[in-house]
Amino acid sequence: MSFTRSLIKKCLVSKNKKYVVFILTALTLSLPLLSSEIFYIDFLLVLFMYATIAVGWNIIGGYTGYVSFGHVAFFGLGAYTTAILLVRFGLSPFVTCILGGVVAIVFALLIGIPTLKLKGAYFAIATLGLGFVLQLLFLNLGSLTGGGEGLSLPLPPWDIKTSVEIFYYAMFIVFLASVLTTYWLEHSRFGLALKCIRDDELSAETSGIPTAKLKTMAFLLSAFFPAVSGGLFSYYATYIDPITVFDPKISMYAIVFSMLGGSGSVLGPVIGSIILYSVAQTARYLITAPGVDVMVFSAIAVAVIIYLPEGIVGFLKGRSGAK
Amino acid sequence: MNLFIQAVITGVLVGGIYALVTLGLTLIFGVMDIGNAAQAAFAILAAYIVYWLSSLYHVDPFIGMILATGLLFVMGFYLYKYIVYKTSGLMAFALLYFLSIFLESTMVFVWGNTYRGIKVPYLSGSLQIYGYYIPLDRFIGFLMVSAVLAIIAYVLKYTYFGKAIRATMQNPYAAALMGINVDRIYQVTFGIGIALSGIAGVILGTIYSFYPSLQGVWIGLMFAIVVFGGMGSLSGTLIGSIIIGIISSLVATYVSSVWAPLVAYVILVLTLWIKPSGIKGRKI
Asked: CB distance B90–A113 less than 8 Å?
């Protein structure tokens, strides 16, 4: 037990991190070659999707300390942008998923400008209803979005195995891009300024950090990645409707995954996603009653906030004394 | 014009009930600076308890309301005493948000995510005054809301306990130095705030049908009212809820009732943009 623990610590905290990350990346890249089971590839694909949303959330919620409760809004916007452009104009989703990210950025600007110049509580309140409002909008703008019936996308032109593999790599690239962005954030002036805002906004402001501008930029960045992964998801799922892509559960997942792993760190959201998504999938096969999975997740979230507010990464760092 | 006045009457009646459900939120926010994201979930929970009592055991909904309110007070009291006090500010908000989802999913598990309504047979029908219809259930609900608001105003203004609450609201440290048990004030205020949402939830449950996921709609509406009226201001909450009630009712009458929640959200964002302190709020 103590051996495992010291091993985990060595992997996470010390200089060995680089190699561990490299080996894991190589393993994930070669997985479709090693295993012919679509189940595992699909499992990891959806895991990458949730991890991307969590990593995106972490930029505003973890690094900047402004907790967003409506990140599903950007995921859904990305999914719908890609779907509409494909169904109505026939544009390739692998290109338009970037456009979905741009749409999400514009929407984030619209919400961010009025709310981010205020204290964190106002931002939290404004984002609380975000997903719901967009769901309402997309349910009732029938001519453009297909309303409650949703949109059916044309099937990808490959056989199932190839298409799952293509989506797997695409989702992995988006996931990797989001993690690299937070890695850059961790080591850049911009990221440092964001951490200053989180720790003491007043001091940051008096030290000459343009807080409102940087907070808005962080929010835009955090809106981009969930939207891109949403765009890929819509083409992969081949059918979307407002109830599934604006499901408030997704916002909750982003927060819980990040918080359990450790918000405000590069690997925290990734670790949290791996653990909790595996738990969620296992629970889905064991328990079939409605509402139980959400019940378990919200209970975990409450426990994390009370007993482990720094998350797993923060806990291990605090114990080993390394920074 | 006829339709317009009818819509305004409905808006005022509904706005009064919004005021009650939001008042608990304002009280908790004003006294302990916590945005209670679980307020709407507790309102729905109270509605379900009363629905359950009245349909299974034939308890009169208004007696059930008293039972549910008492139960919610106890829940709020101990919730603060053992869990919420460990956190503050944004973390408390996040905690209560997850608690609301926990309550919602528990209700889905126990009662299912289908529409329910509390039936009050003697409150069907409507009054007719100068040719305008006033539905009896909304009218009685509005009267009860007014009575509860009057009691709350009296308690806050004239009793020792109310003065202690207001003192804590203004400055908790000074209040503690004057010999007020601030922790106890926090616990009781949290309990009262939750209990108020319970009363309002039952009254709304007799008027509209409800389901567990409705709490997401209500909490957005309630926060829009709180921000619009001014955070922590009790009179601002009253004015704000009547205005938002009237606007929602007008939109429901002239455009479509599906857009009413959107209206509240647009008002929220516009308030934050133009005048973040709201109608009667403290300076931010």
From this structure: no
Tokens of residue A66, six digits: 């402004």
Counting Cβ atoms within 10 Å, is residue B83 exposed (0-12), middle (13-18) or buried (19+)?
middle
Subunit contact A292:B95, Cβ cutoff 8 A:
no
Backbone conformation region of residue B262, classed left if phi is above 0, alpha if psi is from -120 to 50, else beta: alpha
CB contact under 8 A, B109 and A124: no
DSSP helix/strand/coil, A152: strand
Min distance A172 CA to chain B CA atoms (Å): 29
Measure B102 CA to nearest chain A CA, in Å.
5
Q: Tell me the mean pLDDT in the region B45-74.
A: 88
Which amino acid, residue B263? V
3-state secondary structure B1-38: CHHHHHHHHHHHHHHHHHHHHHHHHHHHHHHHCCCCCC
Closest in A124, A133, A301 to B93, CB measured: A124
Domain ranges of chain B: 2-274
Q: Does domain B2-274 have CATH number 1.10.3470?
A: yes
Q: Across the interface, do A298 and B112 touch by the CB < 8 Å criterion?
A: no
Pairwise CA distance, residues A167 & A232, whole Å: 7
Are B269 and A114 inside 8 Å of each other by CB?
yes
Chain B residue with the nearest C-alpha to that of A198: B90
B82 touches chain A (CB under 8 A): no
**Is the ipTM value over 0.90, yes or no?**
no
Q: What is the mean pLDDT of chain A?
A: 83
User: Comparing A105-114, A235-244, B5-14, B272-281, which segment has the lowest mean pLDDT?
Assistant: B272-281
Q: Provide the 8-state DSSP code for B282.
A: P
Q: For residue A16, what pLDDT band results from cuts at 50, 70 and 90?
A: low
Q: Which residues of chain A lie closer than 8 angstroms to B87, CB-CB? A: 305-306
Cβ contacts of B109 on chain A, cutoff 8 Å: 289-292, 295
Q: What is the rounded distance in angstroms from the CA atom of residue A211 to the CA atom of residue A204?
A: 7
Residue B69 has pLDDT above 80, yes or no: yes
Single-letter code of the amino acid located at A183: Y
Total beta-carbon pairs less than 8 A apart between chain A and chain B: 121
pLDDT band, residue A15 (cuts 50/70/90): low
Q: Which of A67, A109, A132, A140 to mutate to test the interface with B (most CBs of B within 10 A)?
A: A132
Model confidence pLDDT, tens digit, residues A254-308: 998 998 888 888 888 998 998 888 888 887 778 777 777 788 888 888 888 888 8
